[in-house]
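Researcher: Re-running this chain for the archive, since the previous output was lost when a drive failed. Same request as before.
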Amino acid sequence: MSNLRARSPERRTIGHKMPERIGMVGATGLIGRRVIEISSAGDQARIVGIARREAALPKGARMEMFVADPSKWGEVFESIKPRAFICALGTTWKKAGRDEAAFRAVDQDLIVQTAQAAKAAGVLNMVLISAAGANPQSKSLYMQVKGETEALVSKVGFKRLDILRPGLLRGAREGDFRFAEKVAMTVAPLIEPLLPSSYEMYHSIDADVVAEAALGLAMRNAAGRFTHDNESMKRAAREWRAKADKEQVD
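Model: Regenerated structure tokens:
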């Protein structure tokens, strides 16, 4: 295990709380990178990333990054002792070679194993980035696996578990161009107002909103299991921004 990126010195100001330490896996994806960038812009939270391999961090990132084999991630959680962690792990059917076992290995097995390791290390809260339409009974393999993963993580026993189910994510992916997704993002604003209300959960949502919601929810104290659709995430993101603005004024 190696510490690749040391945390920048925190600004210690009399009367101000130190940033909340939040662990995260999946730092290289769209949501993970936005979580890093948004948290680095303020002093509410500081991310400690855990990854399988080295990766370039967003410019100006104020965080720590640990690289280790997934079998050692429990030791990392033991070492950093975050109060909460955000799981933004995920792959695509294409990246998995269109192989179900390879897809499940990341989107289910690794997520559940990481959740268990975090809980064993004393982490209280988990935020899981899932997907709109997740359902273990779905005919879509993608949605089926997402739903099964939610159910398995719910049994791990965190004090608080927040499951985020965003629709189509809007945002620039670093080195991961997806043509079909790009087309969908372009036409979404035109067709979404015409769709029946039953399709509202699948509406597009800005990745920044999901990242802000994940950060805010990770820091909440109330115990329980909570599932968030687009509207719920937008409310959580507004609360995060309001606290960030207040912090700057204070």
